[in-house]
Amino acid sequence: MNNVAIVGTGQTKFSKDDGDVEKLLFESTKNCIQSVENCESKDIEGVLVSTNNNSKYLGAILSETIGIQPKISHSIEHLCSSGTNALISGYAYISSGLADMVLVSGVESATNPGQVLDWDKSRGSFDHPIYWASMLTKSHKTKFQTTEEELAIVSAKNHKQAMDNPLAYSNQPRTISEVMNSKQITDDLRILDCSRSCSGSASILLASEEKAKKISDQPIWIKGIGQKTTSASFTKNTLEEIESTRIAAKTAYEMAKVEPNDVDVAEVHDAFSVCELMAISELGITDNDKSGEFVRNLFNTENRMINPRGGLIGTGHPLGATGISQTIEITNQLQGKSEKRQISNLKTGLVHNMSAAGTSSSVMVLGN
Amino acid sequence: MTFFEDQLKQGIFQISYCEKCNENIWPPKEICHICFNESKWKKSENIGKIIEFSKKDSDYFGLVEIDQGIRIMGDISSLSTPKTGQIVTMKVSFDSKPHYSFTVKNN
Description:
The complex is a heterodimer of chains A (368) and B (107). Chain A has helices spanning 21-34, 58-65, 82-95, 129-144, 148-162, 176-180, 209-215, 243-256, 273-282, 291-301, 311-315, 319-335; strands at residues 4-11, 46-50, 72-76, 101-108, 184-186, 189-190, 200-208, 220-229, 265-267, 348-355, 360-367. In chain A, the strands form two sheets. Chain A has a nine-stranded mixed sheet with strand order 3-2-4-7-1-8-11-10-9, with helices on both faces. Chain A has two domains: 4-113 and 198-221, Thiolase/Chalcone synthase (Peroxisomal Thiolase, Chain A, domain 1, 3-Layer(aba) Sandwich), CATH 3.40.47.10; 126-194 and 223-367, Peroxisomal Thiolase, Chain A, domain 1 (3-Layer(aba) Sandwich), CATH 3.40.47. The longest helix of chain A has 17 residues, at 319-335. Chain A is of the alpha/beta class and 368 residues long. Chain A starts with a strand and ends with a strand. Chain A has twelve helices and eleven strands. Chain B has 107 residues and is mainly beta. Helices cover 7% and strands 50% of the residues of chain B. Chain B contains one helix and eight strands; from the N terminus they run αββββββββ. In chain B, the strands form two sheets. A five-stranded mixed β-barrel of chain B has the order 4-5-6-8-7. In chain B, a hairpin with a 2-residue loop joins strand 4 and strand 5. The longest helix of chain B has 7 residues, at 3-9.
């Protein structure tokens, strides 16, 4: 298997306003290609577009827009983890030798219909994600004595970290008290516990080891990958667990030959506050009953180890772009290019992206 | 409209199951996920227990398990705060989406 590196990255600003997916795709792609000094667009052999948007044939349209005729071009949809699934597909094309360089671009418009999974009849009329999030939150509170303040700290921390991310949909700080007193959506969920649908795009250029060494001074290597789908219906989950994340993480750690305590920085899928607490536990970074305390300690010490770009809650959640944006953050951190958000002495970074209440998860371990 | 949805419209919750594998198939499908043979249908007993619940505005909703292992989300009617493990009866309907309504027994 060929080694695969991230050699270029580009994004757009995330926005609550509706956006044109083709224009957004082009903007992040242009920024991505221009981030690589010696990149010839014609050398891109694959173009993968991750989105929940209903637009057709976006892989070919993006290829034509940037004037290339790649071997491979198609779209990838997997709800909220479309982005990492597209990246891992790009990895597979390169590691198998089918392509030398693959562009992976994710995009969404704020009004995308991807939040609701009509197929899942078990959700009845409670089909919006706020309802499963309420079930997970209530259950976490009961089983692990998680407090509303600990949940609010997740959001306050991620909003604070997003203040230093110029691409986040909002740079407004939110105190713990503001989160706890924000609009009540359900008895177990407040509006500031929720990530927000956004317009936005993020692109990554992947390359084989041979190609990466020619065109990049600072390639970031994808060292471990784990994926797991346990169901398509969240009602089959044990409410206090994200089994798919636990299994995907174990696979990724084994492939990268690292342990959870080797992780220096991680972007985790905080679709709702409780998801961050559950994710860091399932990833082995802390224990379930200590996750609230762990995040409180990060907040109090201004340690940006978890979700330095602001996570989904602080940055916004353009579904098809989210996993790629998370990966760009970890790439930039490992390259020392995160400016105000930069964490020092990093060796190993992790990306965690999931779909539909954690019925499917992707985990990637990156290294420099 | 599928058979499952049409039956919901008539107030009946049908469960797809496989006679050969002795398995309920949920969410409802016309084929068994184990042997791929055609599934059969049986009516729910319309009784369940509350797995978890919350409240939106003044209305309770939650996850309820019916018929030994089928979990569904619906609204919960209760004169007092519901409890996990409490037994509920179920009524169903369908317009553009399924509606499952539970009432706490001995309310």
